[in-house]
């Protein structure tokens, strides 16, 4: 694999945005994927992993989080666009991951993807939509983020937590276990995408490879391509 990467100089950056996004990607560093650099980005600055950390809201939210407000997450990212550019520049593909519903993932992820577009970096975005029991406010936050991402991400992968729950009606575990289940699905689909890009990078342009991307067909996953 390394040979292909060296020859093609394919470099992938993966960025977890907000707490859930960071949680999903936290173990990728242990997988020895030589051409993948993992980054964590958040309005809360408690460092949780060994990945490079991108602070947003330096003069705005000052490390205290976005308090589930999308506009606050968005503005925190807008104000620190320079840090985002520094973090994501120079890669051939950006994979952004977030749980939509809070302020940071829903507000800042579209800013990251817009910034990538300005840098001409192709993007694949993986998000989840909250459970209904999380309430209207968080679900509206998620829809807000989702609508923006649909129009700008090259490929958008959407896992509906509610539909995942319905598909696993016999599930009787804790929320922690539930989220481990969704984390696993996201991780395995992210790995598939990375494998696909690494295996096809020799003969195809990054944009061409997008047409081969497919996700597990299931009742709880939607995919949007631009
Ligand atoms: N996959 C996964 N999703 C989670 C997890 N915890 C929470 N979520 C989902 O992700 C959504 C966003 O939550 P967070 O990531 O905590 O929110 P945030 O983006 O950090 O936003 P703020 O905390 O408001 O700044 C929640 O509404 C849940 O639906 C987790 O461990 N894994
Ligand atoms: Mg948070």
Which helices and strands appear, and what pairs or packs with what?
Elements: H1 2-8, E1 12-17, H2 18-25, E2 36-42, E3 52-55, H3 70-79, H4 81-88, E4 93-99, H5 104-118, E5 123-129, H6 136-152, E6 155-160, H7 161-167, H8 175-200, H9 206-209, E7 221-225
Helix pairs in contact: 3-5, 4-5, 5-6
This protein binds guanosine-5'-triphosphate and magnesium ion (MG).
Compact summary:
The protein has 226 residues and is of the alpha/beta class. It is built from nine helices and seven strands, in the order H-E-H-E-E-H-H-E-H-E-H-E-H-H-H-E. Helix 3 (70-79) runs parallel beside helix 5 (104-118), helix 4 packs across helix 5 (104-118) and helix 5 (104-118) packs parallel to helix 6 (136-152).
